[in-house]
């Protein structure tokens, strides 16, 4: 079935020719198409399923009810869990927030999946316009396709969550659970997810198509050609600078509990600045390559960077956000480790002066370090998902430019030059952007943790002998430990992100070899 066969052209109001697309017709057109269209629908549904699982996980954590203070849980802790992050009510909102952050790279992956097979879909939309369809109806077709795929993904995600719950319910010998499998999200949460994810997907599709005009002669994009400006740097300065300037005042004024609410907008501004700044980095590096490079591959990449500098912002956004958050988690972990060392040294001095076997401080190193490592692990998961979105974007770009690559191939440009041009095009903005994300994440966390850990001394009775004789009261010395910046883990994080990009480039390079053929020039 073609697009023209599915459209009924009646006489519209006012005597003008129009078109009427029934819901059934919209559904048939959304499912019609080539293998690329079916792949787009499948990957969009898979991304929606992943987002549904993350949202339901956050809702499950939020659904944990505090124990009855009049019963066994008099301390207010949920002792049925082995993880302290789930036991303490004050920490569960942070856990839910971290899980919600994992939906961001998943949604970015969904946005990239929605672009697979875009040229064929654009030709189908143009055929509908040729049959009398209006621009609003062509947009409605794309929106229905995205919303339907998202709805299928949401239903699949809910089914997986309900099926996995009894499989993950594994209490230990004391009856404690590693995961909150004893609770379910509220019915309102299920309804919100079932309706919210498809609606957000449809809204995102409508926004992405707001500058696209499908005409009977093809598809025209009215995107601006204005070169990017370095104004995203102001967002970075505002986020990092405001955080570093306000943090001492908040902590000094006794508002330590407000620090997370200060870090959240600061991190959001910094992430937004880094993501939007990739456009300016791409345009600038493209101009530098065009001026100083003399190799064909780099010159092709330079022209491509200048022509579409915003491509890096669209493809690298989620990956850079994960790198920034992961960098901050590594610095916070180093702070926790140094704090544990300082407490241990202060306790050792206290025991030595007092001649006592016990200390005076307590610091749950395992809890804090494990919490930081759990957050770092979550960012690694987000990094892997973002890398999947980047791979989809690279393959979509190779597929969309296959005719341009074929034209270059027909004029004598070797395939190796095209592959190296793709590598220049991807890595040139990615390397400085990843380095910037690592640096900003470390700066935000460093501003929160500080440069050193200070443990104040305390009054202690100096005792010696057996039985001990306490002769005088002295003050144990202050313990100061500098917080070493985790240079090696930060370098590994940035290198790992670039390695994921390079692996994706290897996969995309094979697509260049198979898609760039002179026969593509005969394809209508």
From TrEMBL:
<keyword id="KW-1133">Transmembrane helix</keyword>
<keyword id="KW-0472">Membrane</keyword>
<feature type="transmembrane region" description="Helical">
    <location>
        <begin position="95"/>
        <end position="118"/>
    </location>
</feature>
<feature type="transmembrane region" description="Helical">
    <location>
        <begin position="268"/>
        <end position="290"/>
    </location>
</feature>
<feature type="transmembrane region" description="Helical">
    <location>
        <begin position="375"/>
        <end position="395"/>
    </location>
</feature>
<feature type="domain" description="ABC3 transporter permease C-terminal">
    <location>
        <begin position="378"/>
        <end position="507"/>
    </location>
</feature>
<feature type="transmembrane region" description="Helical">
    <location>
        <begin position="41"/>
        <end position="64"/>
    </location>
</feature>
<keyword id="KW-1003">Cell membrane</keyword>
<dbReference type="Pfam" id="PF02687">
    <property type="entry name" value="FtsX"/>
</dbReference>
<feature type="domain" description="ABC3 transporter permease C-terminal">
    <location>
        <begin position="108"/>
        <end position="215"/>
    </location>
</feature>
<feature type="transmembrane region" description="Helical">
    <location>
        <begin position="430"/>
        <end position="449"/>
    </location>
</feature>
<keyword id="KW-0812">Transmembrane</keyword>
<feature type="transmembrane region" description="Helical">
    <location>
        <begin position="139"/>
        <end position="168"/>
    </location>
</feature>
<feature type="transmembrane region" description="Helical">
    <location>
        <begin position="230"/>
        <end position="248"/>
    </location>
</feature>
<feature type="transmembrane region" description="Helical">
    <location>
        <begin position="188"/>
        <end position="209"/>
    </location>
</feature>
<dbReference type="InterPro" id="IPR003838">
    <property type="entry name" value="ABC3_permease_C"/>
</dbReference>
<feature type="transmembrane region" description="Helical">
    <location>
        <begin position="487"/>
        <end position="507"/>
    </location>
</feature>
<feature type="transmembrane region" description="Helical">
    <location>
        <begin position="316"/>
        <end position="336"/>
    </location>
</feature>
<protein>
    <recommendedName>
        <fullName>ABC3 transporter permease C-terminal domain-containing protein</fullName>
    </recommendedName>
</protein>
């Amino acid at each position: 079935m073609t697009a023209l066969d599915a459209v009924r052209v009646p006489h519209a109001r006012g005597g003008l020719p129009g078109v009427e697309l029934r819901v059934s017709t919209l559904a048939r057109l959304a499912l019609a198409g080539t293998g690329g269209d079916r792949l787009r629908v499948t990957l969009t549904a898979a991304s929606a399923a992943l987002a549904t699982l993350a949202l339901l996980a956050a809702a499950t954590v939020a659904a944990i009810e505090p124990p009855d203070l009049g019963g066994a849980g008099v301390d207010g802790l949920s002792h049925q869990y082995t993880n302290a992050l789930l036991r303490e009510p004050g920490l569960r909102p942070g856990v839910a927030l971290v899980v919600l952050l994992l939906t961001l790279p998943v949604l970015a992956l969904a946005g990239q999946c929605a672009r697979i097979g875009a040229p064929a879909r654009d030709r189908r939309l143009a055929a509908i316009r040729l049959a009398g369809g209006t621009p609003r109806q062509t947009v409605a077709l794309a929106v229905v396709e995205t919303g339907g795929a998202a709805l299928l993904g949401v239903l699949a995600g809910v089914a997986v969550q309900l099926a996995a719950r009894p499989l993950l319910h594994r209490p230990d010998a004391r009856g404690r659970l590693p995961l909150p499998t004893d609770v379910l999200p509220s019915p309102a949460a299920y309804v919100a997810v079932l309706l919210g994810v498809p609606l957000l997907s449809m809204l995102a599709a409508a926004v992405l198509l707001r500058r696209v005009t499908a005409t009977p002669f093809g598809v025209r994009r009215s995107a601006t050609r204005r070169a990017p400006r370095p104004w995203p740097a102001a967002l970075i300065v505002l986020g990092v600078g405001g955080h570093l300037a306000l943090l001492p005042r908040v902590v000094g004024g006794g508002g330590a509990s407000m620090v997370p609410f200060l870090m959240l907008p600061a991190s959001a501004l910094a992430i937004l600045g880094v993501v939007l700044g990739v456009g300016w980095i791409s345009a600038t590096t493209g101009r530098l390559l065009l001026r100083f490079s003399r190799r064909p591959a780099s010159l092709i990449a330079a022209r491509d960077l200048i022509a579409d500098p915003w491509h890096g912002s669209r493809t690298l956004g989620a990956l850079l956000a994960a790198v920034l958050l992961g960098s901050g988690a590594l610095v916070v972990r180093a702070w926790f480790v140094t704090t544990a060392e300082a407490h241990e040294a202060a306790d050792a001095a206290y025991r030595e002066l007092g001649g006592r076997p016990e200390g005076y401080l307590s610091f749950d190193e395992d809890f804090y370090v494990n919490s930081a490592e759990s957050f770092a692990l979550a960012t690694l998961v987000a990094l892997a998902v973002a890398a999947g979105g980047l791979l989809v974007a690279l393959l979509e770009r190779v597929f969309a430019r296959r005719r341009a690559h074929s034209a270059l191939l027909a004029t004598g440009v070797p395939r190796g030059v095209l592959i190296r041009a793709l590598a220049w095009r991807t890595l040139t903005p990615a390397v400085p952007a990843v380095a910037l994300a690592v640096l900003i994440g470390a700066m935000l966390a460093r501003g929160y943790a500080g440069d050193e850990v200070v443990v104040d001394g305390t009054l202690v009775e100096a005792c010696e002998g057996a039985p001990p004789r306490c002769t005088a009261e002295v003050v144990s010395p202050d313990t100061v430990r500098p917080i070493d910046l985790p240079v090696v883990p930060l370098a590994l994080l940035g290198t790992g992100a670039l390695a994921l990009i390079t692996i994706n480039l290897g996969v995309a390079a094979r697509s260049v070899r198979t898609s760039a053929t002179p026969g593509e020039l005969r394809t209508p």
